[in-house]
Amino acid sequence: MKVEGLFRDAVEREVKDTGEVLEQDFCILLTIRDPEGKAPVYNEVTQQLQQMGFVYSNVQLKNEVREHIRVEEEADG
Question: What predicted TM-score, i.e. pTM, was given to this entire model?
Fold first, then answer.
């Protein structure tokens, strides 16, 4: 994966004169999975991220199913 920052032309022209380095914080969301469930791709990728010095965090997903039950009583008569 390659990430390249794009800036407005006027800003790029201005920094050519000053020598300033343009920077921009960014975030990438990436899903890693093996559809067939045969390889431990997640473990391998996280190890490689650590080795390369990347800052990463797991996104914890929680699925919660709530079921509401309403009991109606029959009226007499």
Answer: 0.41
